[in-house]
Amino acid sequence: MSQYLSTDSRVDEQPIQIDGEDIDNVTHAIIFNDGQAYKNLIINTKAAGIKARIIDTVTTKVVNIDKGDKYDVYIGRGTLWGNPYAIGFSGDREEVIRKFKYDFERGFLRFTREDVLKLKGKTLGCHCKPAACHGDVIAEYLNALDDES
């Protein structure tokens, strides 16, 4: 923005993040829409007549199926995506996730990178959330793909 608007005193070069409904002083907005988190903000922005650019993003996330959260793919034990390292038997939570990540990064697991790409934009279901989970490793990888290009 500074390249184009640095001489315009009306423009704050530092973008702000608005999580709530406080949009009174906003004149323009860029909203990265994951389809869920900012529904109300998008509605309120439009209702207030704020000029907005809505950019749809594809986000992979992990939810807890025991809490009734909707999910697209179950990634727990017994599936292709399950962590082969069990808490207690193979270490504590941190250790089994570290082992999964190590194997994931080196292609030592039962699935390929091509298999993983099929999960992009999906909601992954497990029993761990909100605690740390091997699913976070998968989601983090998929969500970082756009960052690298």
Order of helices and strands: HEHEEEHHEH
Overall structural class, as computed from helix and strand content, comes to: alpha/beta
Radius of gyration, rounded? Answer: 20 Å
Q: Give the helix proportion (percent range).
A: 25-40%
Strands, count: 5
Main sheet strand line-up? 3-5-4
Helix segment count?
5
Tell me the distance between the termini: 20 Å
Comma- or semicolon-separated keywords:
single chain; 149 residues; alpha/beta; 2 domains; 3-stranded parallel β-sheet; two-stranded parallel ribbon; 5 helices; 29% helix; elongated; DUF4326 domain-containing protein; mSLOG_dom; DUF4326
Question: How is this structure best described in words?
Answer:
The structure is a single chain. The protein has 5 helices and 5 strands. With 149 residues, the protein is of the alpha/beta class. The chain folds into 2 domains: 2-56, no CATH class; 61-148, no CATH class. A 3-stranded parallel β-sheet has the order 3-5-4, with helices on one face. It has a two-stranded parallel ribbon with strand order 1-2. β1, α2 (39-47) and β2 form a beta-alpha-beta unit. The relative contact order is 0.15.
